[in-house]
Amino acid sequence: MTAFRLFVVPDLLHTKAIRNTFKLEVADELAHLEKLLRRLDDMIFSYYIRDKAKQLSSIVRRGVLMGGFSWSTTEMPKDAQPYVSEALLYLVFTHAEIMDLISEVGAGAEHHMVKQQPLTKRVFQMLTVNLAQDLLESIRAIDAFSEGGMLQCVLEVMVISQTLQTYMTAPATECFRLLYAYVRSAYDRSQERARKLAVQQGRPAPESGTGDLREIDGVTLASSHWEIIRRLLRDCTRRTQIQFRCFQPA
Questions:
Q1: DSSP H or E stretch at residue 203
Q2: CA 194 to CA 206: how far, in whole Å?
Q3: What are the helix and strand counts (H, E) for the chain?
Q4: Residue 172, Cβ neighbours under 10 Å: how many?
Q5: What is the pLDDT of residues 100-112, one digit of tens each?
Q6: 147-163 helix and 223-240 helix, angle to the nearest 10 degrees
Q7: Of 239, 217, 105, 243, whose CA–CA distance to 158 is shortest?
Q8: Which of 1, 51, 88, 148 could be stapled to 41 by a disulfide with Cβ–Cβ 3.0 to 4.6 Å?
Q9: Against a cut of 0.85, is the pTM above it?
Q10: Rounded to the nearest 5 degrees, what angle is found at the Cα of 215, between the Cα atoms of 214 and 219?
Q11: CA atoms of 225 and 148, how far apart (whole Å)
Q12: Which residues are registered as beta bridge partners of 216?
């Protein structure tokens, strides 16, 4: 629709046959059609994003909340859960779908100009925000995190945010910031409850895990935790760098 608005309509209205037959004032008609086509373009884009966002939301909510994973008792993470790859692969297919659409529009110089239109960026910035919001809402439904559960969550969110770094916007960044803050506070509350229960039962209180904290990119972890996360992130990046290459800047 963007290509039609940018290239086809102006050429059509400027043809002598059209002007003579319909007695058109080209400037007025072009402005009117431009407004109508922009509204239609926004409507189509909105429907497209809504459909894709719905699928992503289902993947995330199913993986975070309905996958049988125990965030409050799990041990240290070894890898991201399958829903992370499933969500990112869905976006890979979406990217391929958009590129196929672009490649079918126009030819020659016009085709080159269409390819420069920020359609991919427009779509993926919106989908990244939607994905971040779904992650935030799903994670907020979890009341307690073990040490391993907290690190598992941070790992998975960082895999997603780093993979989609090219399409990060202020709203998406804010969602991830709120997510990290919630996970940290929920983990600290879980640790505090565990210490109080241990004291009541006469058992040694578990270590707090709050010493030597370091904040990097909005994520606050102990140095030992950062070592675990960095190692796992390197492993994930090495395995998926070709798979998710389409998200890297040209």
A1: none
A2: 7
A3: 10, 2
A4: 22
A5: 877 765 444 444 4
A6: 40
A7: 217
A8: 1
A9: no
A10: 125
A11: 10
A12: 219
